[in-house]
Write a structure and sequence with these properties.
- The protein is α+β, with helices and mostly antiparallel strands and 394 residues long.
- The chain has four domains: 104 residues, NAD(P)-binding Rossmann-like Domain (Rossmann fold), CATH 3.40.50; 67 residues, ATP-grasp fold, A domain (Dna Ligase, domain 1, 2-Layer Sandwich), CATH 3.30.1490; 126 residues, ATP-grasp fold, B domain (D-amino Acid Aminotransferase, Chain A, domain 1, 2-Layer Sandwich), CATH 3.30.470.20; 46 residues, no CATH class.
- It is built from 14 helices and 17 strands.
- A seven-stranded mixed sheet has the order 13-12-9-10-11-14-17. A four-stranded parallel sheet has the order 3-2-1-4, with helices on both faces.
- The chain is globular and about 60 Å long.
Length: 394
């Protein structure tokens, strides 16, 4: 059986993908950037090979060469699945990689379309062409335009950078003075030029959802919709608690976007169900593995394995249905868990035992315990640091 190379071992969803593939008997090699510490994924029983590479953010060419060198010296790993932002760099250099490591199968869409999906402004423009509802959005290019918009729009509004995930660069503002200040701070923090200025979006009150899908050259192969029960931060970020649901309208919007881009591989879209008119509004599109990847696996849609089968067999049998009502929660970002372990069964009036009986906590694996212990240790350390800082502040 072919083996898989996973990148960005430091991220939780890389471990989720590793466990998914490993339980199917697939050998896994996992990589990380030089000097980034020991990721939990490296401790997994499913990690057969570990390696490091130059950081793709600052040394993209060296990063690509290092991947090819590893693949050529370990030819049993012949499927490459990037899991995080390096997806962009790999898709951009996919022809180079295939010429230098011809045995590699890389189930990615083309760079132009991944770049389009990764750029919030471009994806909103495409959504508008397809008549997919989005928040009202403004794209200023000068300080004067920012000032004019700031004085005319209704608050609150959201400032977003064009490229980023997990709430990166997103700020909620509640007055025109605050918007001017926050907008300037965002430009300076991310060193943005006039062509990459942040955009300004109306705030949509409502509940967050996500739709995820797998395509094989434009053909829908698997699908999932889930409702977000808790995010960190609450204003929008990592979806740490969710439940699988049905919503054909959201799924239809994602399919329309994907087919307009002739999509190949995995893709996910964030929506907010606008409580004012009960219409889902598109918030973002993610053209790579997403933080809540475990939700699909728990609901019967094993996206990593299905993607692997497309890479190996050029196709996969469609998964036309999934289980609804499956609740999952990412244990280690659930800030009360370390405290509950230290302080007892009750915390903020909620019984810990009830929480565990209602929800599938991802991160707990009795057959793959070492990553659990490492992540728990880090979670307790982080909790202790926060408690010490709070004590010193007071």
């Amino acid at each position: 059986m072919s083996g898989v190379i996973l990148t960005s071992g430091k991220f939780w969803y890389t471990l989720v993908a590793m466990r998914s593939l490993g339980r199917h008997g697939i050998k896994i090699a996992c990589g990380k950037s030089h000097g980034s510490g020991m990721p939990s994924a490296f401790l997994s029983r499913y990690c057969s090979q570990r390696f490091s590479y130059p950081p793709f953010e600052t040394q993209p060419e060296e990063f690509i060469v290092a991947l090819c060198d590893f693949a050529n010296s370990h030819k049993e790993f012949d499927v490459l699945m990037p899991t995080a932002s390096e997806t962009m760099i790999i898709s951009k250099n996919i022809d180079y990689m295939k010429s230098h490591s011809p045995q590699l199968k890389i189930p990615l869409h083309t760079y132009d379309y991944i770049n389009l999906a990764n750029d919030k402004q471009k994806i909103f423009e495409l959504a508008s062409e397809l008549r997919i509802p989005t928040p009202q959005t403004y794209y200023p290019h000068t300080a004067e335009e920012v000032l004019n918009i700031a004085k005319e729009i209704r608050y609150p509004v959201v400032i977003k950078i064009r490229v980023g995930s997990g709430g990166l660069g997103m700020n909620y503002v509640y007055s025109w003075q605050e918007m001017i200040r926050s907008y300037e701070e965002t430009i300076n923090k991310y060193l943005l030029g006039s062509n990459d200025f942040p955009f300004i979006q109306e705030y949509i009150p409502g509940t967050d959802y996500a739709a995820a899908a797998l395509f094989n050259h434009g053909e829908l192969k698997a699908k999932l919709v889930f409702k977000v029960l808790q995010s960190v931060p609450p204003s929008g970020g990592l979806m740490i608690s969710r439940v699988s649901v049905r919503n054909e309208q959201m799924l239809g919007y994602l399919v329309a976007l994907a087919r307009a881009m002739h999509w190949h591989g995995i893709i996910m879209a964030d929506f907010r169900l606008d409580e004012r008119d009960n219409t889902p509004k598109l918030l973002d599109v993610n053209p790579r593995f997403w933080f809540s990847l475990y939700q699909g696996i728990a609901s019967g849609v094993d996206f990593p394995y299905l993607l692997y089968r497309i890479a190996i067999d050029d196709d996969v049998e469609s998964v036309d249905d999934y289980k609804t009502g499956i609740r999952t929660k990412y244990l280690w970002s659930y800030k009360n868990i370390p405290a509950s372990l230290l302080l007892g069964n009750k915390l903020n009036g909620v019984e810990k035992t009830k929480e565990f009986t209602k929800t599938k906590f991802e991160g707990i694996s009795f057959t793959d315990p070492l990553p659990n212990l490492a992540t728990l240790f880090n979670a307790i350390l982080n909790y202790a640091r926060r408690a010490r800082l709070a004590y010193q502040t007071n």
